[in-house]
Design brief:
With 258 residues, the protein is of the alpha/beta class. The protein has one domain: Vaccinia Virus protein VP39 (Rossmann fold, 3-Layer(aba) Sandwich), CATH 3.40.50. Helix content is 30%, strand content 17%. The protein is built from seven helices and eight strands, in the order E-H-E-H-E-E-H-E-H-E-E-E-H-H-H. Helix 1 packs across helix 7. The longest helix has 19 residues.
Length: 258
């Protein structure tokens, strides 16, 4: 399987694809810190930066699965929720990339707040846009806890497949009312794999008070890369969740080939 990622961050989707043994053809990330991380861990992948200035036509018909956690800030309850009025509303750019690349599979990710922002306007728009391009779409709410992580971290995941491949029955019956599916802990991952999260920190590190450093000095006492690392981790997808989706995709592929 060939994989390309948009809004790649520090490479959560790319890492999951690597675990699957897939070929990471390209990634696209404008943030300088994210670019450095991606180039270090995936040096053989083509590296793009600004999605709004990138023509992806060179990859047309050559990518099996395209992923992207399009920016969540416009819809997050932690922000101002400006939605389409936010310059970071970049779903249209991801849609353009999809049209240029025409992958067989698409996996998109965003915050839970996307579902109820403006009564689900963008949530429905994403699905309608993909259906208009010939994809069958199924949204899921999958938390990090579903793979044994010690935090909830609900996220919306859109899984779409091209009608042209012709999976029998598709991922949902034609004409069925759209309905988001929720999956909870233990439904995606064996309990025994939770051991790998045993020492995972559930709170971010404290840089000032605990270490006796005055608050007014914390901006110069913490290296820039450390701050960027914390920000990147907060924005990143949980690759273990993506891995379970990828495994399901591969199962569909195997069924279709038999």
């Amino acid at each position: 399987m060939t994989h390309g990622s948009l809004f790649s961050g520090i490479g959560g989707f790319d890492l999951a694809a690597q675990w699957m043994g897939w070929d990471n053809v390209f990634h696209c990330e404008w943030n300088e810190f994210g670019q450095q991380v991606l180039k270090h861990h995936f040096p053989k992948s083509i590296s793009y930066d600004d999605i709004t200035k990138t023509d992806f036509s060179i990859h047309r018909g050559q990518i099996d699965i395209l992923t992207g956690g399009f920016p969540c800030q416009p819809y997050s309850t932690a922000g101002n929720r400006l939605g389409k009025d936010d310059e970071r509303h970049l779903w249209p750019e991801m849609l353009r990339a999809i049209r240029e690349i025409k992958p067989r599979w698409i996996v998109g990710e965003n915050v839970l707040g996307l579902i109820n922002w403006s009564e689900g306007l963008v949530f429905e728009e994403v699905q309608s846009d993909l259906e208009a391009e010939g994809y069958e779409v199924q949204p899921y709410v999958l938390p990090a806890a579903s793979v044994g992580a010690p935090h909830k971290r609900d996220r919306v995941w859109f899984v779409a497949h091209s009608d042209s491949i012709g999976l029998e029955g598709g991922m949902y019956e034609s004409g069925r009312e759209r309905k988001v599916s929720r999956q909870y802990a233990t439904t995606l991952h064996p309990r025994k794999t939770r051991d790998c999260w045993e020492n995972f920190p559930t709170q971010p590190p404290i840089y000032n008070g605990n270490d006796g450093i005055p608050t007014r000095l914390d901006t110069i006492s913490v290296p820039k890369w450390r701050i960027e690392s914390v920000k990147a981790g907060g924005n990143a997808i949980v690759p273990q969740v993506a891995l379970q989706i990828f495994k399901a995709v591969e199962q569909y592929e195997e069924r279709d080939s038999n």
